[in-house]
Specification:
Layout lengths: L2 H4 L3 E5 L3 H11 L4 E5 L2 H10 L4 E5 L7 H11 L4 E6 L4 H9 L5 E4 L4 H31 L4 H31 L4 H24 L7 H33 L7 E4 H16 L4 E7 L7 E4 L1 H17 L4 E10 L2 E8 L33 H12 L2 E6 L5 E8 L6 H15 L1 E5 L3 H10 L6 E5 L2 H10 L5 E4 L8 H11 L4 E6 L4 H10 L3 E4 L4 H11 L1
Parallel strand pairs: 1-2, 1-3, 3-4, 4-5, 7-9, 13-14, 13-15, 15-16, 16-17
Antiparallel strand pairs: 6-8, 9-10, 10-12, 11-12
């Protein structure tokens, strides 16, 4: 009998009732190595002395509750998945279990074998898929140094996946608390998220095959990366809509080259989708001396991006046009296409979340139905309006009108500068040393800056997700959990316009180069002075 024939996963079950321990052992000892403990302290001792693959604990126990036990387990080793057994009425316990105990799942007592066993197998499968991916990454590095770039790609994909999962949890919790998103929202979210997630998990498993050829491995990495981008896009759009609904999004007006922004977006789509059967045309019907405008450049770019993406998705042949014009005191953005068109009875619903109109029953158009919802929300925030003209088979015309503010308008120039200063003064300080943090707080004490704080890179990413108005980040480089280099890469990928300044005790050129390659605009060496901080703010402005 070989080792694979005798291998069993190890499960630790903690419960203060002996009868429950005996029943659990009798039920599962044939399939698993079962360890049982009568209380949390005994469970911790067992966990320290044995390799445990999975943990199940009762919540209500004397001396140490299940959640308190799980928090201590996480400090020892956070990798094994955890299940909490609790009653229907333990709503507060469930909230703590998710936020503090980081449970994989909870099961209502009394548990039933047919309900508990599938959850255990799912948790073990997720745990060992993660372990196998880690082992695969190490093996690939050792076997072939030429694959280093692909392996780094995979690590980035896994980081994006963890980040996307965190964003999803945040969006889902916010939706449940506000009770604004109903059953249809959750059903569509599940479908849209599982679609790219299936590709990520599936191709990650295939990477474990040692017989894979180099070219096959590159193809699988590309699949994983593409689906990770799709998953991240879905989560980002959901979070953005949540921020718009809660009133967190504000207009940030500044003087910029409006023509260049819109032309850049247009060219991006023209290069991506142009074919012998599909042409793109851009028309700027305004005087050349009126290309500079006062706008929110991020939001106007997003409006153009979503309109072009919608047109490209539903147009296989013919033409897509973007026309920029001025009508009275309005800036008009018009996008026309020769695509499938929209039935009149469906036009009113296309701006609803997760609503898509697909008149061709023989063809499915991939998308999550959020893009036009974002356009409508931004136009409303801007005080503008949006109109749609379309007929099935004859294409569509989307017309957006927002207030036109020329760059020479002195009153709005002052407002734009003021708004931009407000954006600059939303500052995130990332620092793990308490004394340094207190010092920076004192430096900013008499300024108008609104400060946000994080003690490691992972917290910094979470703060930026929850507060997109942050424009300047003072990023320490050497920190626990996630260092400043990785945090900067993630933040710049989420928000390319954010300014990240590295502040570190590292003084070598190699460290400066790593920081700049990660996306930092500047690098300052500790100790920080008030004069240095003022120079940073001035340079960003």
């Amino acid at each position: 009998m070989n080792e694979s024939d005798t291998f069993k996963y190890s499960i630790l079950y903690v419960d203060d009732e002996e009868i429950n321990l005996r029943v659990f052992r009798a039920t599962f000892e044939d399939e698993f190595r079962v360890f049982t403990a009568i209380n949390g302290e005994q469970g911790l001792d067992i966990f320290k002395d044995n390799k445990i693959d999975h943990i199940i604990t009762d919540q209500r126990m004397p001396e140490m509750t299940g959640i308190e036990f799980l928090k201590k387990i996480i400090d020892l080793n956070p990798e094994p998945n955890r299940i909490l057994l609790t009653g229907f009425s333990d709503f507060e316990a469930l909230s703590s279990a998710v936020n503090e105990g980081k449970i994989y799942q909870y099961i209502n007592k009394p548990w039933d074998e047919s309900e508990l066993k599938p959850v255990i197998y799912q948790a073990l499968e997720a745990y060992y898929i993660k372990k196998e991916n880690q082992m695969l990454t190490k093996a690939l590095k050792e076997k072939n140094s030429l694959l280093e770039r692909e392996i780094n790609h995979k690590n980035e994909v896994m980081n994006q996946l963890r980040q996307s999962e965190q964003e999803l949890r945040t969006a889902k919790e916010k939706a449940e608390e506000s009770d604004k998103l109903k059953t249809s929202f959750l059903n569509n979210m599940s479908h849209e998220i599982r679609t790219p997630l299936n590709g990520i998990v599936g191709f990650s498993e295939l990477l474990c095959d040692e017989d894979l050829q180099h070219e096959e491995r590159k193809v699988f990495y590309a699949y994983i990366e593409r689906n990770s981008r799709d998953l991240t896009e879905i989560i980002s759009k959901v979070v953005l809509l949540s921020q718009l609904e809660s009133g967190m999004e504000k207009l940030i007006l500044e003087v910029t080259d409006g023509k260049k922004i819109l032309l850049d977006v247009f060219n991006e789509f023209a290069q991506l989708f142009s074919s012998p059967r599909l042409r793109f045309q851009f028309h700027y019907l305004m005087p050349e001396n009126e290309t500079t405008l006062i706008v929110d450049k991020c939001k106007i770019r997003e409006i153009a991006f979503q309109l072009l993406e919608n047109a490209s998705k539903f147009t296989d042949e013919g033409q897509i046009n973007m026309i920029i014009s001025k009508v009275a005191d309005k800036l008009r953005i018009t996008v026309t296409d020769t695509g499938i068109g929209i039935p009149e009875e469906h036009i009113k619903m296309i701006f609803d979340r997760f609503r898509k109109v697909e008149s061709d029953s023989n063809k499915l158009y991939r998308g999550n139905g959020l893009g036009l919802s974002i356009v409508k929300a931004y136009v409303k925030l801007w005080g503008g309006q949006i109109d749609v003209k379309s007929k099935p088979g004859s294409g569509s015309e989307f017309i957006v009108e927002i207030p036109y503010i020329p760059a020479n308008n002195e009153a709005f120039q002052d407002q734009a500068l003021f708004t931009q200063q407000e954006k600059i003064h939303n500052i995130l300080i990332v620092e793990d040393e308490e004394d340094n943090l207190d010092y920076l707080k004192l430096i900013f004490r008499n300024t108008k800056a609104k400060l946000f704080f994080a003690r490691n890179g992972e917290e910094a990413v979470e703060v930026c997700i929850k507060n997109p108005q942050i424009h300047l980040v003072l990023m320490d480089l050497k920190m626990p959990v996630m260092d400043g280099f990785e945090a900067t890469r993630i933040i710049k990928k989420m928000s390319p316009t954010s300014v990240v300044i590295a502040q570190s005790a590292y003084a070598f050129d190699e460290d400066r180069k790593r920081a700049m390659d990660a996306g930092c605009r500047d690098f300052i060496v500790k100790p920080l002075t008030k004069n240095k901080i003022e120079q940073i703010i001035s340079s960003v402005n």
